[in-house]
Amino acid sequence: MSKFSRAIRDHAVPLALIAPSILVILVVVLLPLMFSFYTSFTNYRLIRPDTLWDWIGLRNYQRLLADWDFWVAFGRTILFLTVALNLELLFGLGLALLVNKITWGQRTLRTIMMFPMMFSPILVGFQFKYVFNDTIGLVNNALQSLGLTEFAIPFLVDRWLAFFSISFAEIWMSTSIFAILILAGLFAMPKDPIEAARVDGCSNWQVFRHITLPFLMPFIFIAMTIRSLDVARAYDVVDVMTGGGPAQRTELLWTLIARTAYDDARMGRANAMAYASILLSIFFTWYFFRKLMDARKHLGAF
Amino acid sequence: MPTRTKTVLIWLLTFTVMLIICMPGLWIILSAFRTNGEILTKPAIWIPQNLTLDNFRAIFGFGENVIGVPVSSYFRNSLVISVTSTFLALLIGMTGGYAFARYQFPGKSSTFLWLMLSRTVPGIALSLPIFIIWSRLGIIDTKFGVILVYTAINVPFTVWLTEGFFRQVPNDLNEAAQIDGCTRWQAFWKIEFPLAKSGIASAGIFAFLTSWNEYALASQLTRSTDSKTLPVGLMDFTAQFTIDWAGMCAMAVIIIIPALILTFLVQKHLIAGLTFGGVKG
């Protein structure tokens, strides 16, 4: 009997138990991705089905490398993720420390903190499309009623204001994941090392920097890993708020893929872009997952 | 700084942060009970003059101003799709999670990692090949097609969460039950499943919320009232000549209510599952 079939026989039960999970991922994720990998080497257009067999080698990828729109959207996506993830971590940490300080009404605050997590990304997008609207938006109405501006501020039209608006929506949506997981870390933290450090004369900042923060690191990386699992849900938010427009001013990699595939019907090319976005997501998850594993090892000391 | 000033500052800061978190949502809820006329008035009216249920009547097709968005069909589709895909994902994911928690087998950790990585594929990137294949198979714009996809995207996370919860149940209990004459199957249903039940329930609620809120895939795989879900249906409003803000707000409230209730139910277990699954390894 071969080594392989013996391994199957010896582990028949667990393999049978995980088989359905693997099968469904195979059918819905893996096989479609293999198919789209193939189409990224063809000139496939939705409106002409026979072009599926039109093999053009690496030309989609070559065109992509020379495509200015693609690089602008790619760069903007990286900038967007860098800004959003860093600020989410910073605000989440701040919010967790703040709520941790408050003893009266803490449960209520924690529940309010979870509020944005219930919102579907599409609702977050709609909500801020409404709030930042230039004629009827809450922000513009408030600014005008207070007499701070005479004219409406085009939050969703101006290049940088629109970038600010979509980042604001994204940060609003995801800060609570960080806050909640970091707060869970603060609750789990042993009190003795902090008291010992205070007896030894450490300042508040030193205690935070050398005791609290290292202990929180695994929790921060769990939040980062969970968060990076679906960085692409920013697509929903941006699609509702601006649709990548006006004039591609808020175009992210994901909205560009949707436009190329469904509006321009250039599936081959869109699939080549899709692979860039998949690699980007995998990179983020893999990076934070490794950080999490490292941080876990260090935590063994506690 | 005196302690008193410090306390006031902390509360002021907390209040501001909570206001930023709550304000947009509360504004939507308030707008859902206002008329479009009032929303569009300039200069803005801050205190609502008359609150009305007309927007809710309109989106469900009652009252005089019926609108063109069939919200009740979308609601039904969302419910059927979310419930079915959650049930399937739980069934499949739980068996997988149990195997990862209780057995050793070759390639275990790499299989686990690959399952998780499959979750990272952006919805919009995955929608391209699925759109083509589902069209050829004739399951585009059907509830079945969407259920199949949602089941798959929910499986990895369900495996992860249930694995964590099963591992918290000591293996001794299961072994003791088997010594007392239970089969492994009986030991599972009588001992391990009841102990992990609340965790499994929260994994289920999490899967439900993912399906309920999903947009990127559904927006391409659904076309008509046969299968369109609420998040996709919300975009119907933007296709019209003038945006019916009040109607959109009312529909947003309809989408948020089930999510709100379920999240409150699950909050404690969810945090426990996420953190201890991750930290204790």
Portion of residues in helices of chain A?
A: over 70%
Helical stretch count of chain A? 13
Task: Please give the CATH class of chain A.
Answer: Mainly Alpha
- Quaternary state reads heterodimer
Number of helices of chain B: 13
Shape of chain A: flat
Please report the distance between the alpha carbons of the first and last residues of chain A.
48 Å
Please state the structural category of chain B.
Answer: mainly alpha
Content of β-strand of chain A: under 5%
Would you identify the regions of chain A where 5 or more consecutive residues have pLDDT less than 50? none
The portion of residues forming beta strands of chain B comes to under 5%
Structural class of chain A: mainly alpha
Question: Any descriptors?
Answer:
heterodimer; A: 302 residues; mainly alpha; MetI-like fold; 13 helices; 0% strand; B: 281 residues; 2 domains; globular
Concise structural overview:
The complex is a heterodimer of chains A (302) and B (281). By secondary structure, chain A is an all-alpha fold.
What would your notes on this structure say?
The complex is a heterodimer of chains A (302) and B (281). With 302 residues, chain A is mainly α. Chain A has helices at 3-10, 12-39, 59-65, 68-101, 106-118, 121-131, 138-145, 159-188, 192-199, 204-229, 234-241, 253-263, 267-299. Chain A has one domain (64-299): MetI-like (MetI-like fold, Orthogonal Bundle). Chain A has 13 helices and no strands. With 281 residues, chain B is mostly helical. Chain B has 2 domains: 3-57, no CATH class; 71-279, Orthogonal Bundle (MetI-like fold), CATH 1.10.3720. Chain B has helices spanning 3-32, 36-40, 54-59, 71-102, 108-120, 123-137, 143-168, 171-179, 184-213, 218-221, 230-234, 236-239, 245-279. In chain B, helix 1 packs across helix 13 (245-279). At the A-B interface, helix 2, helix 4, helix 5, helix 6 and helix 7 of A face helix 1, helix 4, helix 5, helix 6 and helix 7 of B.
